[in-house]
Amino acid sequence: MSQLNIEVNGRKVSREVLARTHLGDFLRDDLRLTGTNLSCEHGVCGACTVLVDGKPVRSCITFAAACEGRQITTIEGYDTDPIMLKLRDAFNTNHALQCGFCTPGMLATSRDIVLRLPDADEERVRIELSGNICRCTGYQGITASVLSVLKHFRDEPNEQVDAMRRAAAEGKAALPPETDAPKTFSGFEAKSIQREAKAVTNGADAAPAGSGAASGAATSAPGKGTSVKSGFNVDFPAVKVWEFMSDLKAVAACLPGAVIESQEGNEVKGRIAIKFGPMNAAFKGAATLERDEADMSAVLRGAGQDSLSQSRAKGDVGYRVTSVADDRARVDVDLLYSLQGPLAQFSRSGLVQDFVKRMIADFGRNVSLRLSQPEGSDAPLPQAEFSPFKMFMGVLWARIKRLFGGGKEE
Length: 410
Ligand code: FES
Ligand code: FES
Hints:
26% strand, binds FE2/S2 (inorganic) cluster
């Protein structure tokens, strides 16, 4: 950890940061300035562009610690900036916004063009914008907006803008004029904390018997990956559930999309296919099960690679069986995973974490069903006909219900 002292949108900020924390993550996660969007996280798309000492910088590939003593401007910090005020109007008028995801980075880059190149023509504006990717608008509206603001300041020179242009030409910071009240986006924070607290309570007390309903919270485990805690109840004695959960082949048969190809003692090789919205992956890999008989808990440590996207996944699935009543057990699942490669961009999204929780719930239902079958039966489980589309829609629907305050955590 190192001490970081910077100025963000005119406000002095002092925090401890890890050396590896990127500026974009620091702005979003620590300062809740979520107007800065992260997309490719490779410095390619420009969505994360912010100003550092008045110059556009990719915050996804800039270490926060490297910004010591610098002045950062995010999309939340332009309210008194004469160029940005004109650009915002122009983006609206010229229909330069569609989904709006690229917009914070587009505006930062557009402001820089207006500052540095007062006489830029369309070709030059397009070249300058080529480092920012917009997937929706075809750039026509964005280019027209920048050209209209350039024209505006040619037709009606502005003293503040001229002063900023002189500063930029001399290589000095052309910062937005100081504002008294920098804004942070904190509107949803209180609500989401409340919801998490409610979810944990529901999980402990209110999961319906034998339903396998999963509950729990997803958090980011600093430096280790993403952690999803969940669990389900099963209407069978804990010892019987534990015995079943120790049989790797039986467990894999309950997990949608998973196949064990070989097993030697506590080591298994296999694959798991995942299809969820834009994610389509088939991870192949190996895992080792570490068991603690006395505690009725186990950790399955595994790693694998997706042959399609070349993404790599690493994770620990920890589970613990506890007795709730003579004929009822609870299985708590603690999943810690990290992804590298193209699929990594999805790993932190709430939607994916909801999907994982839904998979755990389905897994719980399958365990209940399998335990209800007579000894030796291998009749197919209903979830064997797993529908990725149905699951995707189910997760989306649950999120929509929660968003409008009516739904419980599922
Ligand atoms: S998220 Fe930084 S350039 Fe794409
Ligand atoms: S407006 Fe959607 S990516 Fe640009």
